[in-house]
Each structure stands twice: as C-alpha cells, then as structure tokens.
Description:
Elements: H1 3-10, E1 24-27, E2 31-35, E3 39-44, E4 48-49, E5 52-53, H2 57-71, E6 79-88, E7 92-95, E8 100-109, H3 117-123, H4 128-144, H5 152-170, H6 179-195, H7 197-205, E9 210-211, E10 221-222, E11 228-229, E12 241-242, H8 244-257, H9 261-275, H10 281-301, H11 303-306, H12 310-329
Antiparallel strand pairs: 1-2, 2-3, 3-8, 4-5, 6-7, 6-8, 9-12, 10-11
Helix pairs in contact: 4-9, 5-6, 5-7, 5-10, 6-12, 8-9, 8-10, 10-12
Amino acid sequence: MDLQAKVAYLSRPDSYPENPRAVEAVQTHMAWVFLTDRHAYKLKKPVRYSFLDFGTLEARRFDCEEEVRLNRRLARDVYLGVVPLTLAPGAGLRLGGDGEPVEWLVKMRRLPRELMLDQAIARGQIGEDDIRRFTRVLADFYRRARPIAIDPSAYRQRFVRAVGVNHRVLSSAGYGIDADVLQPITAMQLAFAERDARILEWRVAERRIVEGHGDLRPEHVCLGQAPAFIDCLEFNRALRILDPADELAFLAMECECAGAAFVGEVVFDAYREALGDAPPPRLVRFYKAYRATLRARLAVWHIDDCGAERARWIERARTYLALAASHCAAL
C-alpha cells in the first residue's frame, strides 16, 4: 500500500467515522495533515534525513506516540492519541479498523484558526494581556522542567558547528544568496561565540538548559483562555535541549518577522517577572540572529521540493537573513 493510495483514502470525507462535510489535505516536508470539521490527523511520510528516519512503519508508529506524549506537556487536551490505518482482506483501507495496520496517524482536536498567534498578529488584534497569559504558562513549564546536565563548552560549540552548517548551506550555488550579506552574519555570530563564550557557558552553569518545545513559532501558539502550544519538535531530542531564552528569542524573532516586534518585548518582560531570570540582551540578540539564519537555511531547504515556489522560498530566506543582519549589527 503506497503513500499515494493512503493520501487518496484519507482525503475522502467518507473515510472518517465523524462524517465531516469536507477534508482539507495539507502537505508538509515530513507529513500529510488531514483537517476535518473537528479533528486533525497527521500521517508521517516515509522519509529519511540526517536528523530523522521515518523509513519503516514501526519508526513512524514510535514517532506518532512520541508526538502525542511530548505535545501533551503543553497541549494536553489537543492530542487525543494515535490511531491505525488498517487494511483487511476484502474490506480495503479503514481508519481505526481491525485489520492489519499499514500506517499510524496522530489524532488531534482541531483548534480554531482565529485563535492562533500568527492570525492575531496578522489582524493586529494581539494584546499585552494575551501575551502575558501565554508566557506565564511557558514560564511554569520551564520552571518545572528538569535541568539538563551538559558540558558548558560543548553547549557553546554546538552553536559554532550549527553556524558553520548554516553558512555552508546558504552559500551553496543556486540559492542566490549574496555572499556580502551572508559572510558578516556568519562572522559576527562566530565572533560572539568566541568573545562572549562566558555568557553562553554561564547559562549552563546556572542550570538553565532544559528539554523545551523545540519549535515555538506563532502558528503553534493558541491564545485560548487556557493557552496551548502545539507541534513541538518530537523527532530529535537533541534539538529540544535548549535555553528557554533561546526558545523565547526564536518566538520573538518570528513575531518580529511578522511585523510585531513588541510581542517579544512583552514575552521577555513577563518571563523575567515569572522566573526572575534576566538573560543578557546581547545573548538574546545572538539567539535571535542565530535562529533567523537557521530559518533562512530551512527556507532554502524547501526549494528542491517546491519547484514553482522556488522564488517564494528564496525571498523568505532573504527576509530572515535581513533580520539576522540587524541583530548581528547590534552585537
């Protein structure tokens, strides 16, 4: 049973026990998401990359279970469980049936699109109270997280290596990234990691490194009365081991990219009030520059898959690099 047949089946409203009016199928780099009236079902693609391997059914099942477990930390009522897509002789495919499992899907409660932070920013309807409310939830999450033991020098070197990878990818021929833009960004981030090594290493000494969300973007923040944070980075634990200031800087950078820089200012103010942790402004600038460069790298990564959307991804990469350059200049 190939992926195309599974996608075709799951794109039909009559495949679901809830009998939705329609099904919207959304493709991402690593998954297909099927949106019904009330639920979302995520199917992992059988892909292999250097940082993950979904090549076997068992690996995809395990990742689905991890996605539910990890996301329930910050969105307990959203992640409903893992359901099989089965195949029975003479009966064909069935979602949640009694036949042999041929795929596994994460089942989620569908959140109102208008309550997501990116949509509130786009409408110009995000208030300080909303920001402080969701930041307090995050601060409590970080407060309860067990500090991760890591060598301070190894923590700093992790950034040095990643900055080098970002540079190599973004400077590849064919992406159209101006070397005169990229080179200073790389040089200033490496200089910070060398000159201000004590700042990075002190965060480790203060036991600030925890297992976080890993992909804290505005489209993953729900502004309900009980804020929820979805779509954590479940497939690679190492990428979730981070400084909360790094994770919040990532969110702040993405909000700034969307035209709402004030969101990050309120987030860090509320975080300081909640935890008494005041990361140095230079460190936050570095984290923002690093995250913006990483997002530029991920943007060009889509180009080989997107064909006609090539120009859009290159423009997005350039937007992130411009933001990275502005924060590097402040270093």
